[in-house]
């Protein structure tokens, strides 16, 4: 097989990149280790920045998004029993859209298959070769046949545990990592959202997050320990803890409850690998960086990465210039580190450490007071949450 760009991974990064390249007349083949059902049903993020929504619109793939996505112009922070609204539209002129990542993936897969573009699921034994040459290749097994994909460039979009980053020789990358002493127990429930917008609740019992996926389905989270046993959390205990953490001092909040049909525990970490390029291999999304979910940035920074990469590749194939490719890593990492800082900031501000001392508690309270009372601090919070420009 021969193509211009071989893409490893059919998550958001790989799928967005393939379509962005196709619009520029650049051929690609996507190889995905999992089957289609698994890829489309993975429950992940659900908050899209304005820039991600705009990207889907430019690609003409926002039909279902416009029908089903929930536009939020603000979100709330609850602490000391009082809710404070951050009005993103008024503060920075932008909004977010609640639309599940699995729907984004489904929309992109449906489109790619409908136009007959190459997308191979269940590609096994994937290996990258010749990355430091001008003729890289990818070997893999598909439907029982060993195959080779020759290409000009390889895009590693296969996530934190994928083979792309691990294919880079030792000593090339510098990695930075922070493992947090928290995890999120997340549920999906057949229950109408209890509020029109997201609520981040910082309590003495730990963080709770009220979110949603549709007018009929709520997405809710509880801060738990990283080694928490999911079996120790029957539905009744989950609802009781959510009620306790989301309640206001005046008792005027009512949590809508219903059948829980999905639950899981997600550990929290920050991770960055630099540079995001080795020879003809370019890393994008979770293959290069991970953020804790508190800032709702994982999917969005991946889309930012591949927009940068598609522009650089279009420049190369259009004029022969390698300037965009040479600057890809630096350009992406400026935004990656801004996103890392914001996600760390939100995580530190809203979670309660198990061993928190009184001094740390007062610092946390001071930060919460500041972002909910200072116009300047609220603007910074709003523009980071809604999404800063790529540059």
Annotation keywords:
FAD/NAD(P)-binding domain, D-Amino Acid Oxidase, Chain A, domain 2, 13 helices, alpha+beta, 2 domains
Total strands: 20
Q: Structural class given helices, strands, pairing?
A: alpha+beta
What percent of the residues sit in helical stretches (DSSP H or I)?
25-40%
For the record, the CATH architecture of the largest domain stands as: 3-Layer(bba) Sandwich
CATH class of the largest domain: Alpha Beta
Oligomer: single chain
Main beta sheet strand tally, sense and closure: 8 strands, mixed
Distance between the termini: 36 Å
Number of domains: 2
Beta-strand level of the residues, as a percent range? 25-35%
Radius of gyration: 21 Å
Q: How would you write the strand order of the largest sheet?
A: 6-5-14-15-16-13-17-20
Q: Remind me, CATH topology of the largest domain? A: FAD/NAD(P)-binding domain
- Contiguous runs where pLDDT drops below 50 for at least 5 residues: none
Assign an overall shape: globular
Mean pLDDT: 96
CATH homologous superfamily (4th level) name of the largest domain = FAD/NAD(P)-binding domain
Would you spell out the secondary-structure blueprint of this structure?
Layout: E1 5-8, H1 12-23, E2 28-31, H2 36-41, E3 47-48, H3 50-58, H4 63-68, E4 70-72, E5 74-79, E6 82-87, H5 88-92, E7 96-98, H6 101-114, E8 119-120, E9 124-129, E10 137-142, E11 145-150, E12 153-156, H7 163-166, E13 174-190, E14 199-202, E15 208-212, E16 218-224, H8 235-246, E17 259-274, E18 277-278, E19 281-283, E20 289-290, H9 298-319, H10 323-326, H11 328-350, H12 358-373, H13 375-386
Parallel strand pairs: 1-2, 1-12, 2-8, 5-14, 12-19
Antiparallel strand pairs: 3-7, 4-7, 5-6, 9-10, 10-11, 13-16, 13-17, 14-15, 15-16, 17-20, 18-19
Helix pairs in contact: 1-6, 1-9, 9-11, 12-13
